[in-house]
Amino acid sequence: MRFSLIYGAMVLFVMAGGGGAGAAELGPRVKVQEISISLEPERHLVTGQSDVIFDHGADRVSLDLAATAQVESVRAAGKEIPFNFARGKLVLDLPEGDSLKVTVYYRAEFNDPVSRSPAASEDPSYGVNAAITAGGTFLGGASHWYPVPAQVPLSRKITITAPAGIEGITNGARVLRETSGKVTKSVWQESRPVGVPSVSAGPYLVEERQVSGVRLYSYLYRSNANLAPRYLEAAAKYLSFYQDLIGPYPFEKFAIVENFFPTGYGFPSFTLLGGAVIRLPFIADTSLPHEIAHSWWGNGIDVDLSQGNWCEGLVTYLADYLLKERRSPAEALEYRKQLLIDYASLVNAENDFPLTSFVSRNDPASRAIGYGKGAMLFHMIRSEIGDDAFFNALRALARDRMYASASWRDIVAAFSRSAGRDLHHWLEPWLSRPGGPRLSLAQVEKKRQGDGWLVTGTVLQPSPPFEVRLPLRLEMESGAIEKVVPVPDQNATRFAVFTSARPKRIHLDPAASIFRIISPTEIPATVNSLKGSTSLLGVITQDCQVQPEIFKAMLASLSQGDARVMVESALDQDQAASHDVVFCGKPQRLSLPSIPPEVETAYESAIAVAGGDTLLFVVLKRPSTERGVVALFQPETVESAKKYAWKITHYGKYGFVIFSAGAIQSKGTGNATGEGGVVDLSD
After folding, report:
1. Residue 193: CB partners within 8 Å, gap ≥ 6?
2. How far apart (Å, rounded) are the C-alpha atoms in residues 572 and 537?
3. Taking a C-beta distance cutoff of 8 angstroms, is the pair 142, 129 a contact?
4. Contact criterion met (CB below 8 Å) for 566 and 582
5. Cβ contacts of residue 226 below 8 Å, gap of 6+?
6. Pairing between strand 155-163 and 183-190?
7. What share of the chain is helix, strand, coil (3-state, %, to 5)?
8. Count of other CB atoms within 10 angstroms of residue 164
9. If 0-12 CB within 10 Å is exposed, 13-18 middle and 19+ buried, where does residue 58 land?
């Protein structure tokens, strides 16, 4: 299972193909697999039968099956055959014969605990691999809910039966849907199987439509069924968009399916969203297109992880970023800046690693690297080779590698072919080395030259240097000049810009078009500043309205579960000055940096409306002479803390959030204390 995050959303999303199309060549080829399961929600039980037809010449095979399953019997060539099942491996010695059919009869209980109000976590599954319950069923591919062969079959069919009114859905085209007596059955056929399929089942109301040759479905619970038209319309819009951009959609259907716990998953041919997620108004136009884009990248084309996971950065770029770019240049610029801010806030020397080592997100830093830095690298490639070459390369990849796997080497080769030049030398350091360039301007001077002005200076970058095409903008009284300076992988590079008008100032990469490590002065104080802190203190004041356990749980949700927590009376000035600090309640002995008046006003307004059902969380920069941030965690009551504290982590890019009356009421971010890479040239 591979993880996918939607930036800016309140939910973590998963693209879960299950390790499919590019599986290693282990064991004999599987020609056909037919799986039939029956769900018994009240008993948390699945009983199953799996028919597997192996290619000729197979004598011993190994199948993965949940370690807690019971294998009742195995048959081949019309009779029972011996088997060995231990620690999740079912090993069979097969009789001789061509295209041998093996049938496995088994049963298994799945009942992972499902939290109804899960705390914030970097695990988007909340620890649930598989659960069969009266409220719904989820069987994740990683749970091995059926006997999984070493190779993906050439053809696969899955039949799901459940008590009447409980509908099942999985990969493939729906070829049968019926209710007879006390049983509801559905049959799903994959013409080009990928990965290890997952199954969802529940009391769904089903709607469908056809668009651009693709069958669309919604499988929603009754309480959310009214949202089906909106999601089907959005799916139709984004499927058409990506087919025009990339090429034919690679699967038989696309379905929006409701889950009974608050996750968001992307599987080959369907997305599985928790009921609370589906009700969020922005999901249909933010998270949904992200999951649709994964149909090509990560599900249709599997990721060869030997060189790292490239698909999360690519999908972040093609969905989260590109759709903003299509709406507004200002939105696109803000998004690129936010990627750089997130990286600088969350990644440090201790948790950094190269893109070739990224497999999946497991903490905020890995998210900022695999998704954020990866997306910025694709933006740099596009800027370097142009739109035509960039999107032609993606179309060629989709055409040539669909239902197979691709590595970073394959991705770079495709862009090189499309650009007509070798990009490996330029891109290799960006992939294989952690970090990025720390760029600054030095020795910048202007002087008269003939009828104009010559501005000269040096671009500095400490070791290890990167090769960069650095945009500069020279502002004059009558406009601006854009210049791209080739910066080789060296520590100092001279530049010169001539202008006929008097220069006012010069900017280094003003459009945030390259990946770089921005300076602390360019980073506003945000929730992510706390997540990335390496020296955080939690301080309980006399004004704190909650028990220490609740405060510690809130810190843990910010990936600061190991932070030291102390009472304010034990905190001295030197400790406070040398750490980032989160106060529970307003401090009495030490002063906070000033809370902006607009935040105070919004907070007081929320209390006036909702009273104790209010919580403020604000992160503030210390004065410019000091380093670090200070935060205030201010729930009005224990109940408001329990209700809202775990949500704070989902607003990482913001400097303050105010919750009241059951929802987020206000959020925002203060300004950075300075502009990095700007030199004033005015007299």
Report:
1. 20, 33, 152, 153, 154, 155, 156, 171, 172
2. 12
3. yes
4. no
5. none
6. antiparallel
7. 30, 35, 35
8. 12
9. buried
The pLDDT assigned to 162 comes to 98
Residues 6+ apart with CB under 8 A from 647: 10, 120, 657, 659, 664
Q: Would you give the distance in Å from CA 465 to the centre of its chain?
A: 29
The whole-angstrom separation of Cα 660 and Cα 641 is 11
Contacts of 550 (CB under 8 A, 6+ apart): 638, 641, 642, 645
Interval 73-88: pLDDT, tens: 999 988 999 999 999 9
Distance CA 110, CA 129 (A): 9
- 45, 109 contact by CB (below 8 A): yes
The dihedrals phi and psi of 48, each to the nearest 5 degrees, come to -140, 160
Find all residues with CB under 8 Å of 347, minimum gap 6, and list them. 365, 368, 369, 532
Q: What is the pLDDT of residues 619-661, one digit of tens each?
A: 999 886 567 899 999 999 999 999 999 999 999 999 999 999 9
Question: Residue 620: which residues within 8 A CB-CB, separation 6 or more?
Answer: 525, 592, 593, 594, 595, 629, 630, 631, 632, 655, 670
Burial of 307 per CB tally in 10 Å (0-12, 13-18, 19+): buried
Q: Which of 261, 258, 254 is nearest to 239 (CA)?
A: 254
Amino acid making up residue 63 = L
What tokens were used for 640?
Answer: 């408001």
The mean pLDDT of the chain is 92
Looking at residue 18, its pLDDT comes to 43
For 236-272, the pLDDT digits (tens) are 999 999 999 999 999 999 999 999 988 888 999 999 9
* Residue 480 token pair: 């601006």
Residue closest to 210 by CA, chosen among 174, 246, 245, 185: 174
Q: What is the 3-state secondary structure (H, E, C) of 434-467?
A: CCCCCCEEEEEEEEEECCEEEEEEEEECCCCCCC
Question: Quick one: which H or E segment has residue 409?
Answer: helix 408-419
Helix (H, G, I), strand (E, B) or coil at 229: helix
Whether pLDDT at 161 is above 70: yes
CB 260 within 8 A of CB 272: no
d(CA 574, CA 578): 6
Between CA 66 and CA 113 the distance in angstroms is 17
All domains in the chain, ordered by first residue: 29-294 (2.60.40.1730), 302-432 (1.10.390.10), 440-518 (2.60.40), 527-668 (3.30.379)
**pLDDT band per the 50, 70, 90 thresholds, residue 14:** very low
Q: What is the largest CA-CA distance in the chain?
A: 97
**For residue 254, what is the enclosing H or E element?**
strand 253-259
Q: Which pLDDT belongs to residue 591?
A: 83
For 312-327, what is each residue's pLDDT tens digit? 999 999 999 999 999 9
| The model's pTM | 0.90
Residue 496 CA, distance from chain mean position: 41
Closest CA to 420 of 380, 383, 393: 393
